């Protein structure tokens, strides 16, 4: 059984400095307004700083990244003598000392950025002198060369996805023999994506004399078995507030039974609700994600898409724009559900009903983060009612039969604070009506052109052919162009008119008794 710690609303969490974190890390976090710990961080930091194995369990958005990231960086920076071995951590020499395994590319980038912020300006002592702490990300969808070059230059912390980590380790570019701190982040998601065999192979390559930390929102059976196999007497910590349930209580949840053809119109009106900020829309399929993004863009919204049919560069560009505010709507499949850590997401819309209760929890976990409030809206089609009943029963939401709702329903405007006067597109954007035909401008008439033409036979000028002459295309009375010679069409020339030779397709059967063309000409 895990050690469940229930935290009341009047509890004042300690600061990172009070828990013994290195002053350099404290200053780096302070620059970004992060001073005090969240519940999971408060409970895991003392154990992790001492080098103990642990299992950290907390819901999405509760600060698990710094729950393992801060003690990991702290141990590398201070090189404290911990209960990992007789000599503690080895000196940094450019080979990885810490490995963090994550399930998705987006989460890999996010964790790397969080660690870089925490280690900003922090110097470490190595065998070759003092330098900055080096952190790199290794994931698929990117060329191998840049990642191999980063490893060859030397790195202290590696954050990566299982597949690419395994590939580079087999090729000999990634040295795992000196890893002393191992982290499995979002372990249940890696199980759902089928990465468990790859993880076991990677774990077999790292030394057994190490500190291992496993963090996850849920703890299914296979993950518990994995923890028992690869962790040494771990402490299982689960942090909760006194009024917490399986889902965020600070997130207001609405569920509507919606028709497929009316969903985009409903989304367009929800996006014009009062107080609406950054919004994430989740779909089950890649095709639906792109279609919804295109339709919202036509209605005037600043929207981007993240799904499997897009290249890694395009996905990172869309996520970057969403983070910096260039776009405020992101349509994504579940691949991005755990890769985005933005505190300002105010609304989450489930365009299609999630597959199960875990997917639902992770989706709506994108809002109501870090103690803030949020709004989650779920659309359930008629053929998805049974799936929703299972989700509602598993989470105890008390909404087994969603209300039938359309884009013109009064309770939709009342629930979400939408002005009843809003339309399905932003003001000033005219949506093309169905069947509307756009008239094209007629082409402008072109001026007649003069060109030079010479008859040839076999690449040579024909015998008796007149020298090259200018032929002008002049329009006739019926408007069709005609070729007029210098004498005019009715004038008689010096040489008799030659009979035009008819070309025959190659391989065509010649009529009986027909003479060759050359013989006929003679």
Automatic annotation (TrEMBL):
Residue ranges, compositional bias (Low complexity): 465-486, 513-522
CDD domains: DEADc, SF2_C_DEAD
Enzyme's top EC category: hydrolase
The keyword ATP-binding is assigned to this record: yes
EC number(s) from the headed UniProt entry: 3.6.4.13
Biased composition (Basic and acidic residues): 431-450
UniProt keyword 4Fe-4S present: no
Name of the protein in its database record: RNA helicase
Organism: Tsukamurella pseudospumae
């Amino acid at each position: 059984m895990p050690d469940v710690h229930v935290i009341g609303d009047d509890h004042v969490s300690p600061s990172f400095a009070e828990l013994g974190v290195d002053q350099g890390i404290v200053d780096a976090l302070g620059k970004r307004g992060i001073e005090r710990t969240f519940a999971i961080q408060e409970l895991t930091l003392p154990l992790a700083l001492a080098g103990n194995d642990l299992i950290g369990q907390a819901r999405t958005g509760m600060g698990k990244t710094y729950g393992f990231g801060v003690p990991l960086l702290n141990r590398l920076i201070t090189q404290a003598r911990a209960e990992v071995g007789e000599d503690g951590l080895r000196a940094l020499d450019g080979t990885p000392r810490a490995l963090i395994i994550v399930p998705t590319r987006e989460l890999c980038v996010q964790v790397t950025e969080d660690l870089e912020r925490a280690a900003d300006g922090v110097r470490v002592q190595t065998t070759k002198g003092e330098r900055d702490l080096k952190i790199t990300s290794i994931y698929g969808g990117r060329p191998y060369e840049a990642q191999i070059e980063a490893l060859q230059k030397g790195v202290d912390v590696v954050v990566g996805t299982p597949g690419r980590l395994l590939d580079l380790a087999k090729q000999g570019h990634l040295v795992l023999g000196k890893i002393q701190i191992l982290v499995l982040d979002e372990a249940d998601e890696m199980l759902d994506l089928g990465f468990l065999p790859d993880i076991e192979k990677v774990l077999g390559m790292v030394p057994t004399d190490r500190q291992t930390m496993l963090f996850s929102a849920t703890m299914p059976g296979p993950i518990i078995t994995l923890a028992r196999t690869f962790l040494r007497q771990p402490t299982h910590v689960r942090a909760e507030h006194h009024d917490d349930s399986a889902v965020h209580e600070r997130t207001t949840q609405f569920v509507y039974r919606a028709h497929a053809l009316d969903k985009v119109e409903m989304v367009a009106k929800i996006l014009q609700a009062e107080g609406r900020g950054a919004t994430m829309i989740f779909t089950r399929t890649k095709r639906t994600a792109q279609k919804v993004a295109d339709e919202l863009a036509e209605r005037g919204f600043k929207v981007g898409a993240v799904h499997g049919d897009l290249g890694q560069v395009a996905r990172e560009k869309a996520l970057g724009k969403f983070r910096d505010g260039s776009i405020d709507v992101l349509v994504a499949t579940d691949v991005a559900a755990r890769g985005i850590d933005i505190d300002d997401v105010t609304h989450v819309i489930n365009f299609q009903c999630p597959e199960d209760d875990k997917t639902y929890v992770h989706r709506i976990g994108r809002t109501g983060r870090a103690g803030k409030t949020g709004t989650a809206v779920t659309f359930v089609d008629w053929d998805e009612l049974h799936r929703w009943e299972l989700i509602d029963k598993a989470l105890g939401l008390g909404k087994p039969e969603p209300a039938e709702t359309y884009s013109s329903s009064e309770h939709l405007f009342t629930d979400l604070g939408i002005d009843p006067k809003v339309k399905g597109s932003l003001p000033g954007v005219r949506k093309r009506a169905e069947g509307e035909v756009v008239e094209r401008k007629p082409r402008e008439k072109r001026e007649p052109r003069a060109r030079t033409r010479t008859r040839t036979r076999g690449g040579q000028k024909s015998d008796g052919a007149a020298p090259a002459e200018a032929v002008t295309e002049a329009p006739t009375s019926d408007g069709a162009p005609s070729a007029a010679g210098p004498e005019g069409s009715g004038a008689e020339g010096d040489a008799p008119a030659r009979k035009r030779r008819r070309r025959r397709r190659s391989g065509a059967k010649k009529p009986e008794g027909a003479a060759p063309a050359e013989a006929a000409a003679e």
